[in-house]
Design a protein that fits this description.
Four copies of one chain form a homotetramer.
Chain A: E1 4-8, E2 12-16, H1 19-26, H2 28-31, H3 53-73, H4 80-92, H5 114-128, H6 134-140, H7 146-152, H8 158-171, H9 180-185, E3 187-190, E4 193-197, H10 201-219, H11 222-243, H12 252-259, H13 270-276, H14 281-291, H15 297-307, E5 313-317, H16 323-337, H17 341-344, E6 349-356, E7 366-370, E8 373-376, H18 377-380, H19 386-390, E9 392-400
Parallel strand pairs in A: 4-7
Antiparallel strand pairs in A: 1-2, 3-4, 5-9, 6-9, 7-8
Helix pairs in contact in A: 1-4, 3-4, 3-8, 4-6, 4-7, 8-10, 11-12, 11-15, 12-13, 14-15
């Protein structure tokens, strides 16, 4: 029997003792995740945040195994096949991410998000592996015991339990860490649904507050936002040039996405799949360096700035920026850099970022006080502000060049 | 110049490069804190929680030094004398604690709390050290720049910053840890008052939630409460016997507190000071073992149970226990153990424990959005529930023997 | 089925899911270990080192379980009974320790070491538990598969794997930590003997060097030695006075050991067992405080010094101190303190401390390069100095009062 | 005054409060180090090892600051200019590294190592910054107080103190960690030379053993070697094709190094400097993906294997592989893959890797027992094997395809 042990600085040793899981791990689509940073360009602010989607995927798989062990020890019946399927689903859950994870999600490709691509790629791997992934895909899509699917995708899934801990570890924002070990020990099943035992309530409060901290301190840190917006504009300009017949130099698999408007339906073709699965962070970074010498001043300037971390200045506000304020910023920028109105749209931008700490939607976190008394965390906790939890916390931003 | 470096598993190396601080540390009243556990009998639930008041006092002194360094780097004027005085105050702030810290605070001595005793002992040390502690005592009592006193005693003082981190570390409840480093980096002074810079708001939210977690998961853990209540009853019985002329065997310095009703005014005498400063955890533990063979069945039974961790069964509730429920419990106990009504009061007890996460009192935590926009954390955070923060969270308990 | 989860700051959660192990843990003899510090008076140098024999015993039991899991996963047959017996043996292996662990091992009792007392107490618990510990005792004494006994007692036993990591953690000497997780993953069995797989050789080198570091930096730190020697002399004086009919005040269970010369054969009696198992650190500390007021000047002085950390001055040397040097020290001391020759023997002392990093004895650490190529670590490593490893590293010391 | 605080998961907060250091950090040549992994392709074995040269450079700068603080506190005179120069030197010490750090050091460029390139680039930055780096360059080259240069480059320099701790942290090989804090606290200066105080000897022993562990467990891990050798062969093939006029597709700045034999003297030209400083890991990874579709079967095959982690099988031995063994391997490979003799040289390779734990060269680690008794660690430690320390530990390897 195969058994692979992987050193993970976050969880310690991760064991994989199952051939199917090892086959998935060896598949080129999984290996690609070694070359995709979990947190996009966050390393421009937190230099330690270089960790990859592969590490996260392994960690999430590891945690679902621990969760299943806990549930079994409490008398919950889970077959070996169900367990392997859940682990496989977790290992592959992010397989559809493109370069820099979320950053370019809607720049390179339109009308399809990474979850949909993940599912398409899972089916491809399934056919490569002779159909042995069918139960994993069913599990991923929710055709399984409800609590298993909640471990894969809910507001307390092993995805979040891994990424909060991992992103905190690598960014060095130690406060963002969560007690994933304790939370997992507190999991149970009631009426086929995942619940947290009552004494775990403080851990859950802390998990939600830590998540909020990570959002505003790391994921939506204003300098991170500035970097990601700049990256988006570079790609937008490159696509614009490509459509104009002046496609900037790029590896073929990136050029494919610059020249063509790739949409959801294109993912039915081998060609698109082939190009997409060749794509990763390195193509973008390498090309942007080449583009610093582009004949197009817009592209050259932004590329140079991005590579040398000369990022937009960014202001944030809880209120929308006034049209006057934005116009003034555009005006200054156009004059200083001699830009046309259209070009200026790459240099001055506005928008908003937002995050919700906890959603009163379908996949709630349920606290079990007794088998007959199960309450949503927002009801169970008297500390957290119910309205604030469910409301979307939103910040407007205005980016413009440092002149 | 003297320089002592102490290894602290929580903060790393703690340097003491000042003679006055070293003289305080060498004083017998400080050394006594080596023999007083920070968390009373919490080690019956969390075996790692054996750490002492001395460790905490050193840690709190270390953190106030870091805080002062930060404030100075931001342009806040603090003289060397002010700095040493604040560190000395922090080093001695808990010097008045008796055996098992809070547990016996109102059992051995009446009508005086540990802060008052601390102050008395500081004055004694001051006269031993030729008056060199006068500024430290002034600082401890608030006759100093307001922000310095807030570092010593407020809802964000270095006392809490140390003990939450330390108690979390030694108990192994890793979730209780707080970002004391980051919070300290975010401190500033506005109008002579301590403030936290706005980007530290998430750290403060997390600090409050962590504090709440530590209260209910550790400090007020129900088994901890059961142990502490049992210890209180043992001492109450011993004092009762002493008053009856049947004082159980104990070292003289403990016997002094059993035989006499020591009150605040007694702390003006050398005799009481002498006896009090000889007292620590070891006397209580050693005596209780002797008392397991006491002729008084009440004392012998409770002592035996306590030493061998046969603790009361404890039930907790958000509602008061009904008189019927309590009476039933008393009835069962009296019959099973053949106790008189009076004796039963040592075996069945009820009461409440409570904690407030944040108080809207005088020493609030202020968040500085700009020099002109400083808001209380309960106003600044939209996540924390203002009403819940300020309300006292209370649990009733009922303890009775495991029969 | 019972299942207890204990929070351990060193290893995380320790689960005990077996009734026999829980019964052992609840036994008064085990509970006593809560009141015995693992490292005696080391907290006078490393204030964090307050951890107890109970914590270590739980940790060692936890590690042997992990080791057994690893061996089973490599195809080694170990029955559940063997596993429970090994865990039970590990849980109880230190049960015979007296106050301050090793410090008073030969002061209070003569001619019997803690291992022998452990065995006696195990037999007592065994009869309390209806003989269910017989296999555990067999395992403890080596009547079991050789590799199981090597996990319990050898130069790479789970005793050392726990205590090095734990003592490093609590003392804050982080360098002393060892890779117990990795070492355990590298264990295997060859010909019924415990071996380490070849790729674990660097971990073993590091384990030996870390052990040496802990000896000289912590266990035999010269101030620790000074404190322990002072404690020994206090007890020696107290016994001397007791024999002279002037026994200093002490709890009865300590008085028993002061008045009587307790030897190995006394441990056959219920009385000695009863007194011994009541004894712990608290009796010693509490009594020494009482003795600071003893009529015997010798006892009073040493007790006062010890309690207030006014320790002997200690010098160490790789050579024996010359008779002249010692005599000069005695002479000064006698004159300064007006001591008789006999009294002086409590104030000026000499002796040696020693440690061997690795012994070429019977229970070697074997490295398996292949099933047919198994070599002792001292042969397998080309880095460690074979002669130095096997030689005893020795330091002479001279203690005398700070005048 | 500028002050930047950077979060480092290894050392905590790193403060940069000096404009010159901030200017260096902002320079494009430094920013480039964000895109160069510290440990080449080690992430293929230890997925966490994604950290960059930039993080290491910041860490090493931070440690030299701590070391200077320690030396100053011990009375050693170091001016602020000397301190800034040393920090600047440390910040830039690795600036000449190319893609994947050491891996391609002699593949892309010939006859010049990264130290020489570092020096060239420092001079360039110096002229960009108006000559303000002259003292830093002097310090880097040893024209400064000897102990300062020893902190920058010796067997106990802050380079090693950072990278061992950092590489251990990110790889998850926790055993490789070293007590850099303690070692730094033990540093002192005697006769202008850096020494370690005697009580630090065990920390130094442990540092050397940890370094050895990291070499064989991480840096020279056999799968890491296989990956690096494959990468070398891919570049060698690409250069061969370029010389044949069939240069594979690549960004211009990489193509420059494929088409031309760049040697030391070329680094005198702006063109080479320009191309070199555009180059980083991303170009190599992106190009290799493109090359998986190369018309050259050799290049396409190796590229595909590398990207999908289908690495060479590697055998290692303390003895050289026999010509027969190698020939057999070549024979099998040629037949299986239908390769020519010349092509086979890319698929079957042999060589050796080696490491020396401690060198008896010029920059030894000196232990100070007293101002008059300073001894080399190899003499001072009786534990480490002098001969083994100084000898080069060497392993031969044979790589061939997994067929």
């Amino acid at each position: 029997m195969a058994n692979k042990i992987i050193n993970d600085p976050v969880h310690g040793f991760i064991s994989i003792g199952n051939d199917l899981l090892l086959n998935i791990l060896d598949h080129p689509y999984m290996q690609r995740l070694r070359r995709i940073r979990q947190l996009g360009m966050t390393n421009l602010v937190y230099p330690g945040a270089q960790h990859t989607r592969l590490q996260h995927s392994l960690g999430a798989m590891h945690l679902i195994q621990l969760a299943i062990d806990t549930l079994r020890s409490k008398g919950c019946a889970i077959t070996d096949d169900e367990s392997i399927a859940a682990m496989a689903a977790m290992l592959m859950h992010d397989i559809g991410h493109g370069p820099f994870s979320h950053v370019l999600e809607h720049s390179l490709v339109e009308g399809i998000d990474h979850e949909a691509i993940s599912l398409i790629l899972m089916h491809r791997i399934n056919s490569d592996l002779g159909g042995r992934l069918s139960q994993a895909i069913d599990t991923f899509e929710g055709r399984c015991k409800p609590f298993l699917h909640q471990l894969i995708s809910s507001q307390l899934d092993t995805d979040r339990l891994d990424y909060l801990k991992r992103d905190s570890f690598f960014s060095g924002v130690t406060e963002g860490t969560i007690g994933s070990d304790r939370i997992i020990k507190m999991l149970n099943v009631a009426g086929n649904e995942l619940v947290v035992e009552a004494k775990g309530i403080y851990s859950i409060e802390k998990f939600l507050i830590a998540r909020r901290l990570m959002y505003w301190q790391v994921y939506l840190h204003k300098t991170v936002v500035a970097a990601e917006k700049m990256l988006n504009q570079i790609l937008r300009r490159a696509k614009f040039l490509a459509r104009e017949g002046k496609c900037p130099e790029a590896p073929k698999h990136l050029e494919y996405f610059l020249r063509n408007d790739i949409k959801e339906e294109d993912f039915e073709t081998d060609l698109t799949i082939k190009q997409f699965t060749l794509l990763d962070d390195s193509d973008i970074l390498s090309s942007i360096k080449t583009w610093t010498e582009s004949g197009d001043r817009c592209l050259a300037t932004l590329s140079d700035w991005f590579i040398n971390r000369h990022l937009y200045k960014i202001e944030t506000s809880r209120e929308q920026f006034s049209p006057d304020r934005i116009e003034a910023s555009r005006h200054n920028t156009m004059r200083a850099l001699s830009l046309t109105d259209d070009e200026c749209s790459y240099f001055v931008l506005t928008g908003k970022v937002q995050s919700k700490t906890y959603s009163l939607g379908n996949d709630r976190i349920n606290i079990m006080f007794s088998p007959n008394d199960i309450r949503d965390i927002s009801q169970a906790s008297n500390m957290l502000n119910l309205d604030a939890l469910n409301s979307t916390d939103c910040r407007y931003f205005l980016c413009y060049p440092r002149l």
